[in-house]
Amino acid sequence: GESVGLHLPTLSVQEGDNSIINCAYSNSASDYFIWYKQESGKGPQFIIDIRSNMDKRQGQRVTVLLNKTVKHLSLQIAATQPGDSAVYFCAENIGGSYIPTFGRGTSLIVHP
Amino acid sequence: KAGVTQTPRYLIKTRGQQVTLSCSPISGHRSVSWYQQTPGQGLQFLFEYFSETQRNKGNFPGRFSGRQFSNSRSEMNVSTLELGDSALYLCASSLESGVNTGELFFGEGSRLTVL
Fold it and tell me: Helix, strand or coil for residue B84?
């Protein structure tokens, strides 16, 4: 079946740089997308979400971009900090579905 | 406000045994979902309960089962354990059903090792 995927399994950046984590989805019926952050030894934590009627949404130091034409989602983290080191998951909800489908995850490593 | 609590945090079992994991959702949350997380497969959905009813089920064998109590607490059970069942089992609760309503609140998980 269709699933959410990620382009890069590991991303290494320097502290202070901007990070971009990418996610591809293949189900055109998906209309709601979420980014989660999972730190070592913890459960995933909600970061930001976006609905399919939007192209961009900003939070605190994070921005999610949605390109429905190419079915692509990205998470931008500004001024990346060591505390941002974690695995980041994108997840998609298909309209009417109660259950999000999670991508495989990207490990972000921030070097001080 | 207390978060999602999962017990036990760590456990070791042998093949053929069974295990029960517990999840206490955030107060007021009626939907509880369970996920299996492994390095190879990522986060795989097991099942979701809402108001004591299993509303959604993932593609796992019948050895995996769950239930939800009237206070929204949930348990999952895995019978006849196999080596491949070694994983982090995550519970997540949400205020509504989880559909398009925003975030799932995850617990820290129960790390199961099957020897």
Answer: helix
Give the pLDDT band (50/70/90) at residue B41: confident
Whose tokens are 């978060």? That residue is B3
The pLDDT confidence band at residue B40, using thresholds 50, 70 and 90, is confident
- Contact by Cβ (8 Å): A19, A13: yes
Of B56, B97, B109, the CB nearest to A43: B109
Per-state percent for chain B, helix, strand, coil, to nearest 5: 5, 50, 45
Whole-angstrom Cα distance, residue A98 to residue A95?
A: 9
Which residue has tokens 């930001």? A48
- Going by the DSSP 8-state scheme, the letter that residue A15 receives in this structure is T
Residues of chain A contacting B, Cβ within 8 Å? 31-32, 34, 41-46, 49, 51, 89, 93, 95-105
- In DSSP terms, A14 is beta-bridged to A111
Q: Closest Cα partner for B6 from B90, B67, B86?
A: B90
How far apart CA B84 and CA B15 sit, in angstroms, is 10
Residue B63 clears pLDDT 90, i.e. is over it: yes
Q: CB atoms < 10 A from the CB of B97, how many?
A: 18
- Whether the pLDDT of residue B97 is over 70: the answer is no
